């Protein structure tokens, strides 16, 4: 799954994490200040709007990021040459960079909230004269930020689509070259044709969401800590330093633990769902060429297994979705509860209130990565288990226990054929 696309994955991914941590540490500890000494300092008040992307600090970060990527990619190009290194190493670095740009656009919009909503409050409260040019000028600032987000988003989607297909191509070539070893695995054709595509796209989506959440936390936690200075106290708790950050952390941990508990059975059910679907589809394909296959009694038996597993999946998703939706709906009012004492006391303006709720939403959403992605993680676990059987067969290892579980159609235990491969409980049909 990974060795086909990434150079020496067991070393590559830990080294990427360590290099990223080192680069971040050097940036905050030394490199950012060095940029100011080299002439990349910010002059004047903070820039609000699209111009923030070509200020000195932003340009210096772009140069720093490019140098860090060049050193890392150059090392792996020499240490472990790989035919897909341009896409796996440089392509991943580009995706990380555009994700960073999208997060910074969100920070720019959050900074824009303050002056814009303070202007609206001043206009509606008649506390000062507001010129039409000032109002529409701020709207134009937002428009440029929105257009930048759209432009970056469209190009990112186009590149990621190619990135995913390259990864699928690498896995496809890797498994096809070993087809004689793999053809005995139950649903081998589906696992190569469909699961490789789903694995690459799902892994990329989850990985990108995780990186985006991490970058959001890095960008917005300092913003939220600064805005917490406007919050006088929390309900029942009184004064708490960095109150809004603690509220987001505690509430996110609670939600993640809750959904992990109620969704613990879903990965296994999803795996069996793919297996019974593969058995039903396989019999139908055989029936296209062989009149003795795909007989109605056999198809009824196989479809009965499909129906039984789907009904089990639906039932388990009922209580999972109840817990998930209740938690997410409650999350909407959490910042309003936390801000209650400050709102009642009139301690914040409309602009500050909007900035706080937006920044709190970003931080809470980032902390809730597992909550938001749980159903996708369940799907990925199922796909991973199916492809992991290929890895076990290639390495002459024993299949995982779930491959030996009872046949959903008739309750018979399945035993591997050809050493560690096929599941005769299905292949017999």
Rg of Cα set: 27 Å
* Element string (H = helix, E = strand): HHHHHHHHHHHH
Helix-strand category: mainly alpha
Rounded average pLDDT: 80
Percent helix range:
over 70%
Q: pLDDT under 50 segments (min length 5)?
A: 406-429
Task: Using the alpha-carbon principal axes, give the shape.
Answer: globular
Termini gap: 29 Å
- Strand content bin: under 5%
The major sheet is characterized as: none
Could you provide a short overview of the structure?
The protein is mainly α and 429 residues long.
Structural write-up:
- With 429 residues, the chain is an all-alpha fold.
- 76% of the residues lie in helices and 0% in strands.
- It contains 12 helices and no strands.
- It has helices spanning 9-37, 56-79, 85-125, 132-176, 179-182, 188-227, 243-262, 266-289, 296-344, 350-367, 369-394, 424-427.
- Helix 2 (56-79) runs antiparallel to helix 3.
- It starts with 8 loop residues before the first helix and ends with a helix.
- Mean pLDDT is 80; it is low at 406-429.
Give the SSE layout.
Blueprint: H1 9-37, H2 56-79, H3 85-125, H4 132-176, H5 179-182, H6 188-227, H7 243-262, H8 266-289, H9 296-344, H10 350-367, H11 369-394, H12 424-427
Defining key terms:
single chain; 429 residues; mainly alpha; 76% helix; globular; disordered C terminus
